[in-house]
Amino acid sequence: MVANIRKMTKENEPAVKHILQQNHFGEIEYIKVAEERIAAFLADPQQSEYICVTLAVADEVCAYACYGHVAGTEGAFRLYDLEIAAKGDPHDLSTMLLQYIEKDVRPLKARLIIAEIHQEASLATLLPQNHFSLIGRIPSFFPDGKDLVFYVKYLDAKAQEL
After folding, report:
1. Which H, E and C letters describe the chain, residue by residue?
2. pTM of the model
3. Domain covering 3-161 assigned CATH 3.40.630.30 in the classification
């Protein structure tokens, strides 16, 4: 499979919003916050708080990720969103996006990438397969009683020792 990953543009915003609607039907707040991050990135792609990228196969957007530098830190980055279209292969596409993100943040002196997700999100299985470690959980965080779980991937041995 030949995939093209690049910074998100206004042209592929509708496809990304469609993926969000498919994956989070009825989760109005989640979609609203994700769309706010997208809007912030598209308004100023040079800022570093939110970086949005799309993955396209045969010119069709089938995955999206949003990540960025954690304000007030040195080398900490956060994965805000990683969404795969219903027809996409979650394992292969998420792995490609996670590898892209890691490659993108390393030159920025990244030490670690943090992900906070719903315990039943598909990423709960995909993150450990991509060398993210479960580091914590807040029980019954969400209104449906599910936990908020925290994953981290250290990008160098020195950071992991701290």
Report:
1. CCEEEEECCHHHHHHHHHHHHHHCCCCHHHHHHHHHHHHHHHHCCCCCCCEEEEEEECCEEEEEEEEEECCCCCCEEEEEEEEECCCCCHHHHHHHHHHHHHHHHHHHCCCEEEEEEECCCCHHHHHHHCCCEEEEEECCCCCCCCCEEEEEEECCHHHHHC
2. 0.90
3. yes
pLDDT tens digits for range 6-45: 999 999 999 999 999 998 877 888 899 999 999 999 999 9
Which sequence spans correspond to the domains of the chain?
3-161
pLDDT digit string, tens, across residues 98-145:
999 999 999 999 999 999 887 766 777 889 999 999 999 999 987 778
